[in-house]
Specification:
Helix 6 runs antiparallel to helix 7. The chain is elongated. The strands form 2 sheets. It has a 3-stranded antiparallel beta sheet with strand order 1-4-5. A 3-stranded mixed beta sheet has the order 2-6-3, with no helix packed on it. It has 7 helices and 6 strands. It is α+β, with helices and mostly antiparallel strands and about 210 residues long.
Length: about 210
């Protein structure tokens, strides 16, 4: 008598075991499939989120770089200071040169003005000297030298006979008649005036025709 005949229940139970295991596997797969997509990845997602929130690690300051930047800032400051000092010195030098030039020109004008009296006297002596005399020759030579010096200094004579009277250049000391010229014009120079550049060393003393 076979084993199956002896135990008929075993024939019914044996095929049920594999079928029961297969059903368990299917049930587990269905359970996993029903889970939300994000549930299984929760630990990994949390780790990524924490890493993003933490951000990249902050770089520690470099002492050498900070010292270099500080040195560069000081160098720029010292350069700007030196440029300001240089500009101030250039302005001072220009002002000083201008003052020296003005003082020198003023000194020349002062000496030339004081020598005008000597020039006037030499011209009067020349008129009074006898012709062909040694004295007249000496006066003429001295007067020529003085006029040459004045010419080198840029001194010119104010001689405006026949021109309209200009109070900036002339002093009217006498009044002329209508027969002597046009009204308001200079008809005679009584004492020469002199200009040195744009500066009047001495106004000319003139006679002016009356306008009335």
């Amino acid at each position: 008598m076979s084993e199956l005949e002896q135990n008929p229940q075993r024939e019914e139970q044996t095929p049920e075991e594999p079928e029961s295991l297969w059903e368990q596997v299917l049930a587990e797969q269905e359970t996993l499939a029903e889970q939300e997509p994000g549930e299984a990845e929760t630990p990994e997602s949390d780790w990524l989120l924490e890493e993003e929130e933490a951000g990249e690690p902050q770089e520690e300051p470099d002492p050498a770089k900070a010292a270099l930047e500080e040195a560069q800032a000081r160098a720029d400051e010292y350069l700007a200071m030196a440029q300001r000092v240089q500009a101030d010195f250039d302005n001072y030098r220009k002002r000083n040169a201008s003052l020296r030039a003005d003082a020198y020109a003023e000194g020349q004008r002062s000496v030339a003005t004081q020598m005008l009296t000597a020039l006037d006297n030499m011209e009067r002596a020349l008129v009074s000297a006898e012709d062909d005399s040694p004295l007249k020759s000496g006066i003429e030579l001295t007067l020529k030298q003085m006029r040459d010096v004045y010419e080198k200094l840029g001194v010119t004579v104010i001689d405006r006979v026949g021109e309209k009277f200009d109070p900036n250049l002339e002093n009217a000391v006498l009044q002329g008649t209508p027969e002597e010229g046009e009204p308001g014009t200079v008809c005679q120079v009584l004492q020469k005036g002199y200009l040195m550049g744009d500066h009047v060393l001495r106004h000319a003393m003139v006679k002016v025709v009356s306008e009335s």
